């Protein structure tokens, strides 16, 4: 019994040491979010998800930034004036708030964009649903679709698509 308690304690301690460097950030921090379905970046924060990780993002404050990179899968939401990117083979499903800026480069992006949001798609694919006035730039051979308020479905376009 005593030996098993010691072994269990050692396993927990090693587990904590392994987990600490891979957590997601709090206020005004930069963190790596390398994987796992429970890895979520929360708060006014700056996070990066890469190395084929699975990451969530929930930042309802202002001045948040998030990068989903190198084959990672990311989902979540950010509030007003968010700066988010999905690049190089990543798969992103994000809600971005008012006056946010989103860049999708050589990735697969599904975005719900708030009022006055700007979405830039360069390569890959972008499906953008605007909740108000927004702009979507499609270039570099990207496949783009936009849905404005009142539309029943996404509509394909090339160049620049706008709502409002």
List the topology elements.
Layout: H1 2-19, E1 30-32, E2 40-42, E3 46-49, E4 54-59, E5 65-68, E6 73-78, E7 83-87, E8 91-96, E9 101-113, E10 117-130, E11 134-139, E12 143-147, E13 155-157, E14 159-163
Parallel strand pairs: 1-3, 2-4, 3-5, 4-6, 5-7, 6-8, 7-9, 8-9, 9-10, 10-11, 10-12
Antiparallel strand pairs: 11-14, 12-13
Explain the overall architecture.
With 164 residues, this protein is mainly beta. The chain has one domain. The chain has one helix spanning 2-19; strands at 30-32, 40-42, 46-49, 54-59, 65-68, 73-78, 83-87, 91-96, 101-113, 117-130, 134-139, 143-147, 155-157, 159-163. Strands 1, 2, 3, 4, 5, 6, 7, 8, 9, 10, 11, 12, 13 and 14 form a 14-stranded mixed sheet that branches. The longest helix has 18 residues, at 2-19. The chain starts with a helix and ends with a strand.
Q: Average pLDDT across residues?
A: 79
The N- to C-terminal Cα distance equals 69 Å
* Apparent shape: globular
Model regions low in confidence, pLDDT < 50 over at least 5 residues: 1-31, 34-38
Q: Profile the largest sheet.
A: 14 strands, mixed
Summing up helix and strand content along with how strands pair, one would put the structural category as mainly beta
Helices and strands, in order, run as: HEEEEEEEEEEEEEE
In percent, how helical is the residue content?
Answer: 10-25%
Kindly estimate the percentage of residues that lie in beta strands according to DSSP: over 45%
Measured on Cα atoms, how large is the radius of gyration?
A: 19 Å
Task: Domain count, please report it.
Answer: 1
How many helices? The count is 1
């Amino acid at each position: 019994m005593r030996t098993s308690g010691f072994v269990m304690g050692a396993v927990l301690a090693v587990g904590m040491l392994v987990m600490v460097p891979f957590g997601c950030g709090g206020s005004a921090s930069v963190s790596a979010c390398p994987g796992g379905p429970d890895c979520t970046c929360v708060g006014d924060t700056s996070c990066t998800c890469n190395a084929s990780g699975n990451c969530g993002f929930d930042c309802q404050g202002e001045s948040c930034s998030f990068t989903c990179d190198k084959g990672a899968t990311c989902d979540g939401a950010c509030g007003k004036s968010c700066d988010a990117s999905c690049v190089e083979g990543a798969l992103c499903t994000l809600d971005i708030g008012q006056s946010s800026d989103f860049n999708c480069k050589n990735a697969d992006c599904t975005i719900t964009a708030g009022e006055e949001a700007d979405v830039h798609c360069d390569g890959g694919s972008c499906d953008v649903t605007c909740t108000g006035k927004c702009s979507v730039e499609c270039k570099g051979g990207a496949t783009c679709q936009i849905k404005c308020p009142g539309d029943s479905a996404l509509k394909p376009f090339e160049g620049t698509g706008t709502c409002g």
